[in-house]
Amino acid sequence: MSRIGKKVIDIPDNVEFKVDGNLVSVKGPKGALSRVIHENMSLDIKKLENSKSLKVSVSRPDDSKANRSLHGLTRTLVANMVEGVTKGFTKELEVNGVGYRVQKQGKNLNMNLGYSHPVVVPDTDDVKTEASGSKITVIGIDKQKVGQFAAILREKRPPEPYKGKGIKYIDEVIRRKEGKAAKGSKK
């Protein structure tokens, strides 16, 4: 049995949870998400007696390799949907380098990254950005879209290993390299 797949998902009172065939819809204070899950996976919804809270568990039909793989994945995707509409997701990036600046202009993120031109990245409908000093915060309710948007921003100037300049995730560790050794006299 999958350790992740057998965990029960707690649905808070302020979240509306619907299953229509293979379509799972979640609506909460931050927004609404929907996703089609694989037809082999089934969701069991249990309502608690004292409150409006729900408990959702994911089950699989058999122990074939494909179904075992989908079991934990489906549970994680549904749990991330619930967490996204209640708390939301954030990803923080840090800009390092002399003269590298980031500022927010309306719905655009304007970045000076050492190129001859500024790099402008507009916010999408699903993902918003905030900039303060040398930090960029990507905010959204869909975990996959937040991570993808953060990866696109990092791609504009990836960190380099010699001076550490570029855009990196806040918790990322850059392995530094030593530069060329100076020519010395042979002894």
Description of the structure:
With 187 residues, the protein is an alpha+beta fold. The chain has 2 domains: 9-86, Outer Surface Protein A, domain 3 (Alpha-Beta Complex); 89-169, Ribosomal protein L6 (Outer Surface Protein A, domain 3, Alpha-Beta Complex). Helices cover 19% and strands 37% of the residues. The protein has helices spanning 65-86, 143-155; strands spanning 9-11, 16-20, 23-28, 31-36, 42-47, 54-59, 89-96, 101-105, 108-112, 119-122, 127-132, 135-140, 166-169. Strands 11-12-7-13 form a 4-stranded antiparallel sheet, with helices on one face. The N and C termini lie far apart (66 Å). The relative contact order is 0.14.
Quote the beta fraction.
35-45%
Count of helical stretches: 2
CATH architecture identity of the largest domain: Alpha-Beta Complex
Q: CATH homologous superfamily of the largest domain, by name? A: Ribosomal protein L6
> Which strand order does the major sheet show?
11-12-7-13
Average pLDDT reading: 91
Can you tag this structure with a few keywords?
187 residues; alpha+beta; Outer Surface Protein A, domain 3; 2 domains; four-stranded antiparallel sheet; three-stranded antiparallel sheet
Topology:
Blueprint: E1 9-11, E2 16-20, E3 23-28, E4 31-36, E5 42-47, E6 54-59, H1 65-86, E7 89-96, E8 101-105, E9 108-112, E10 119-122, E11 127-132, E12 135-140, H2 143-155, E13 166-169
Antiparallel strand pairs: 1-6, 2-3, 3-4, 5-6, 7-12, 7-13, 8-9, 9-10, 11-12
Task: Summarize the entry for a quick read.
This protein has 187 residues and is of the alpha+beta class.
